[in-house]
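Lecture notes, continued. The same structure-token format from the folding unit now serves as the input rather than the output. Read the line below as a description of shape only.
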């Protein structure tokens, strides 16, 4: 089994979930570093993966997605005027290169690609690799990748590591009342304000669930709306037709890319630390030896 880490999701949660009193000897905050490493250690101990891959945003707001939907994540791109929020951004950004250096020194693969999000890297690896996949994330967007046959499941971290849920198709079906494999279609209709995706005007989660239970694609639902399909009803049909242009623009934005050209990697965690000198130097500089040791122990690498 391969554990795919949605890196930004984990270090963001770690930064805001761990006290900012955690500091390096030089006073630099290390709460995101320690929280991230501890989270990966706990997930590794729980799932016992053969390999762990940290997946990165080459661009968290890719140009090709914003060309289709200019509002996509636009709110997140506005500089904060709040001094405390701005300092948080600086403190988090100062820690992420250290996390990547630690993973590199250990010898765990780190993969990102320009103009694509970590979701696309994860989707491509989940599709490409033959092994079962567990995706660690706090992002519902990745529910669209769940596949019971391979299997591909999501360790959904919204409630924290200790209370996380393992999402399969049945979980999605029970939670949203839809066929589990149609989550992306429901998300397209419903929208996601946090990502700047309004969805189809007038269609909320209940309306989206009704439509998705009836139709398995945008083309099918639009054809049904055009033909006045009685199962839709006049109101939903009208809303779908009014939202036609949005649906056609937003579908590739919402859908994860599954065919990126990505590097290959070893199918097993390393049997020895890739760069012990570099790792020891980072531990000494940032005072994160305990968290590094936890991760090494979890992957049986001492």
């Amino acid at each position: 089994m391969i554990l795919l880490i949605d890196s930004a999701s984990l270090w963001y949660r770690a930064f805001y979930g761990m006290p900012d009193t955690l500091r390096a000897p030089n006073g630099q905050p290390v709460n995101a570093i320690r929280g991230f490493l501890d989270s990966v250690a706990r997930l590794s101990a729980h799932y016992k993966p053969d390999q762990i891959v940290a997946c990165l945003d080459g661009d968290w707001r890719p140009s090709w997605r914003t060309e289709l939907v200019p509002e996509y994540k636009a709110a997140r791109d506005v500089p904060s005027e709040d001094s405390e929020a701005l300092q948080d951004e600086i403190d988090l950004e100062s820690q992420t290169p250290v996390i990547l250096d630690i993973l590199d020194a250990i010898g765990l693969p780190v993969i990102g690609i320009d103009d694509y999000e970590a979701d696309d890297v994860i989707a491509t690896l989940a599709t490409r690799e033959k092994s079962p996949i567990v995706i660690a994330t706090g992002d519902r967007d990745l529910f669209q990748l769940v596949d019971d046959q391979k299997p591909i499941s999501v360790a959904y971290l919204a409630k924290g590591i200790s209370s996380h849920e393992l999402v399969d198709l049945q979980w999605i079906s029970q939670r949203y009342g839809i066929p589990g494999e149609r989550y992306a279609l429901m998300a397209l209709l419903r929208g996601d304000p946090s990502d700047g995706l309004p969805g189809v005007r007038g269609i909320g989660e209940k309306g989206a669930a009704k439509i998705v239970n009836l139709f398995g694609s945008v083309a099918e639902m639009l054809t049904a709306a055009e033909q006045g399909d009685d199962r839709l009803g006049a109101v939903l049909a009208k809303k779908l037709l009014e939202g036609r242009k949005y649906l056609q623009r937003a579908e590739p934005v919402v859908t994860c890319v599954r065919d990126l050209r990505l590097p290959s990697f070893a199918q097993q965690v390393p049997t020895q630390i890739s760069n012990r000198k570099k790792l020891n130097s980072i531990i000494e500089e940032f005072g994160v030896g305990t968290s590094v040791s936890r991760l090494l122990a979890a992957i049986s690498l001492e």
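Point for the exam: The radius of gyration is 21 Å.
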